[in-house]
From TrEMBL:
Gene3D superfamilies: Pleckstrin-homology domain (PH domain)/Phosphotyrosine-binding domain (PTB), Zinc/RING finger domain, C3HC4 (zinc finger). Keywords: Metal-binding, Zinc, Zinc-finger. This is Pleckstrin homology and FYVE domain containing 1. GO terms for cellular component: early endosome. The keyword Glycoprotein does not apply. The lineage of its organism: Eukaryota, Metazoa, Chordata, Craniata, Vertebrata. It comes from the Eukaryota. It comes from Cyprinodon variegatus. PANTHER family: PLECKSTRIN HOMOLOGY DOMAIN-CONTAINING FAMILY F MEMBER 1, PLECKSTRIN HOMOLOGY DOMAIN-CONTAINING FAMILY F MEMBER 2-RELATED. The keyword Zinc-finger applies. Residues 151-211 form the FYVE-type domain.
């Protein structure tokens, strides 16, 4: 992880990063915002791990696809640090120095080139989060998205166990992250912490869970649960 030492260097580099995204993303230059560090990490994609440029600020984490290292990037993504939960992961045979980045909208695995860099990234993110907690009230009710199972990790649908082919394609359930076939993921459901306005693809198991949750929520909102409790109370009397 590369770090900057002076305030002037910091302001200059933040502006460079902001201008390096094409098409332009959100404005990154803001009062009291500090670029804590930057570097390239491998991020879990749908089919494989892909190298992305990551920029850690004192309040947000920014990443994007690399067009030219340290000069041009695309597909700017911004995650508020208050919405991130880190989970350390053990090394696998294929991927080393990995951890899980959990957020409400999307969770994904990342890996660093070395163990030391992994620890540096995790430590600096947690230090920035600790500083934010001194200034902001933490959100204790965050729901985090499940990380997607990579395509290559599933040769069969993880619900009906039918083998994937060129015609029986892979899809992802947005709620559990499983790789499923089209037949097992025809339903759509609203998952508020991912996108409260859009109906998302879900597998048949999660679809049932979502419908049950909607029914329970509707009963609660209409006072049905309280009504049931009052009836039980009157019967006891």
């Amino acid at each position: 992880m590369d770090t900057l030492s002076t305030e002037t260097q910091n302001r200059k580099r933040i502006k460079e990063v902001e201008n390096a995204f094409s098409p332009p993303g959100e404005t990154l230059s803001k009062p009291n915002r500090i670029l804590v560090g930057e570097g390239n990490l491998m991020k879990q994609g749908r089919k494989k791990m892909e190298q992305k440029a990551f920029f850690l600020f004192n309040d947000i984490l920014v990443y994007g696809s690399i067009l030219m290292n340290k000069r041009w990037y695309k597909n700017q993504k911004i995650i508020p640090l208050k919405d991130i939960k880190l989970e350390d992961m053990e090394d696998s045979d294929d991927i080393k120095h990995m951890w899980l980045m959990c957020t409400p909208r999307k969770s994904f695995f990342v890996s660093a080139p070395t163990y030391e860099e992994k620890k540096a990234w995790m430590m600096h993110i947690e230090l920035c989060q600790s500083s934010l907690l001194q200034e902001q009230v933490p959100n204790q009710n965050l729901d985090f998205a499940k990380s997607w199972i990579p395509d290559q990790a599933a040769q069969k649908c993880m619900r009906c166990f039918v083998t994937f082919t060129t015609t029986n394609r892979r899809h992802h359930c947005r709620k559990c992250g499983f790789v499923v076939c089209n037949k097992c993921s025809k339903d759509r459901a609203r998952i508020n912490h991912i996108d409260p306005k859009k109906l998302l693809r879900v597998c048949k198991i999660c679809s049932k869970t979502c419908k049950e949750s909607e029914i329970s929520r509707a009963r609660f909102d209409s006072g049905g649960l309280w009504g049931d409790a009052e009836e039980l109370s009157s019967e006891d009397e």
